Amino acid sequence: MKYRLVSGLETHVELATATKIFCGCTTAFGGSPNTHCCPVCTGQPGALPVLNKKVVEYAIRAGLATHCTINTTTHLDRKNYCYPDLPKAYQISQFDKPLCEHGYVELESGKRIGITRIHIEEDAGKLVHESGFTYVDYNRGGVPLIEIVSEPDISSPEEAKEYVEKLQLIMRYIGVSDCKMQEGSMRCDVNISVMPEGATEFGTRTEIKNMNSISYIEKAMAYEYERQIEVIEGGGKIVQATLRYDEHTGETSVMRTKEDAQDYRYFPEPDILTVVIPESKVEEIKNSLPELPTDKLHRYIDELKINPATAKLLYKYKRVCDFAERAFALGAGVKNTVNLIVGTLYSKLETEEDKEKFVLPVSADEMAALVKLVDDGKINITLAQKTLSAMAEEGKPVSAYIKPEDIAGMDDGELESICRQAVEANAGAVADFKAGKEKAIFALYGFVKKATQGKADIKKADEIIKKLILG
Ligand code: ADP
Ligand code: MG
Ligand code: ZN
Known about the structure:
The protein has 471 residues and is α+β, with helices and mostly antiparallel strands. It has 3 domains: 3-283, no CATH class; 291-407, no CATH class; 412-470, Orthogonal Bundle (Arc Repressor Mutant, subunit A), CATH 1.10.10. The chain contains 16 helices and 16 strands. It has helices spanning 53-65, 157-173, 214-233, 279-288, 293-302, 308-315, 318-329, 334-345, 352-357, 364-375, 381-394, 404-408, 412-425, 427-434, 442-451, 458-470, and strands spanning 3-14, 69-70, 73-74, 77-80, 90-93, 100-106, 112-122, 126-130, 133-137, 144-150, 186-196, 206-211, 241-246, 251-257, 267-268, 275-276. The strands form 4 sheets. The protein has a 9-stranded mixed beta sheet. It is elongated. The mean pLDDT is 94. It binds adenosine-5'-diphosphate, magnesium ion and zinc ion. Residues 20, 23, 25, 37-38, 40-41, 142 line the site of zinc ion (ZN).
């Protein structure tokens, strides 16, 4: 029998606010254990939380960017559980009235993965297991999170990957999180079930907790899909359970089953007032959103006519796009700009993170100045690549490499005289060309390029040469 895979993801995203959700402590990653803490975020008795406005704003940004409706009257709830990473024995979260609901993320295929809800909550501390002891570091306690819950609309590991990547991209574009999975600022709980092709009811699901790598998510889903089918085909039943994924064996194992599932006894948080957000604030946030990744990708392909493969290499990195778009605005041609970025600048930015940060000592102005020289046929692309490479390494302007007199000197008279020399020096190639071998003309281009150190406009040279040969 064939089985369909059904999956919904719960994604935790750490918000990039400077301070924690209910106190003024820093959210900076790392730091010596228990140095980014105070009585509020370590849950001391009597300490009172004060909701960070920025957290609400960032969560609304995330909601609007994923097409959610915003609940402008909302509140927080206590989720009770007892574990050493949470000294006050409850997490402040949202239960029945999440800040954002009913959105979606669109995949390249046009398929929409529904977003059930996005709510705000606080992160817990971190347990560190070392040489037989367990330590607890509360630096992360109270760091603001949004939890993005998807509908069970994901049907394959590939779709899960694309969904997570899209979410990552959206959150980075709108500036609410860096979404670094390896640092834990984005992590996913992956819910999976299978159902026979044609069935109308979902199967029982399992949930793999706390995945912090996209490739592990894909592998774990593929493994769990096969495992569930095997159980069902063997006459067994899937037991609803929380699983952990072992990245070394590539297998899942049970952490807890439904029998010992927790009852969190949610109730409204009494220390924080109902949150009322003016409609005008939502409107203001909506207006401040940048162009979103999918819209940008489509605009690059459809309007700017960038080829899809190149457009995909660009749109993933917001800073690169900002740089390219500034150069366009300064009059640089799209084609030469993007080719120089992807061909030359990317070779200086090896990792994803390098491209993400995009720190190179080349300004958009200088980039535009260089590209315009290529656009106008004053220099060829090879010289432009060499120049840009040097600019990116040395931080000097175009004028340090290409002097105005170099380009200005190449007037029509001079180019014609060089073309004449090319014709004289390549009698064989000229004869071949006249005999119909079109490619023979490349030998003459080569001569002109060499004689002008790449500064000749080859299109112009081509015209002159043909006139000289064919009369
Ligand atoms: P909780 O984990 O808090 O009990 P929910 O019932 O809200 O939560 O579901 C959590 C996630 O599980 C959601 O992303 C949802 O899409 C997904 N999900 C629900 N039912 C199934 C199912 N049968 N198969 C796969 N995923 C499911
Ligand atoms: Mg869950
Ligand atoms: Zn604190």
